[in-house]
Amino acid sequence: MAEANKSLKKGDDVTWKSHGQTVHGEVEQKITKRTETAGRTVDASPDDPQYKVKSDKTGREAVHKPGALKKDG
Questions:
Q1: 21-32 per-position pLDDT tens digit
Q2: Domain containing residue 64
Q3: Which string of DSSP letters, residue by residue, matches 8-72?
Q4: Which residues of the chain have pLDDT under 50?
Q5: pTM, whole model, 2 decimals?
Q6: Where do the Hypervirulence associated protein TUDOR domain residues begin and end (predicted)?
Q7: What's the structural domain count of the chain?
């Protein structure tokens, strides 16, 4: 299933787990280099990308590896 998540793109609806709850949100950005975002340093690369997501409910941003995100629909 993780392979399918490599095709995530900006605007995709996704879910992820946070503090034991399922959070619904949207992909904001694919990160492919080391960068500072969502309040932390993200050590991403083209071979190991991460995704910045925004919660629909709270508006808070987070960064997750593709395996932690599940595309809705």
A1: 999 999 999 999
A2: 2-71
A3: --TT-EEEEEETTEEEEEEEEEEE-S-EEETTEEE--BTTB-EEEEEETTT--EEEE-GGG-EE-
A4: 1-4
A5: 0.87
A6: 11-69
A7: 1
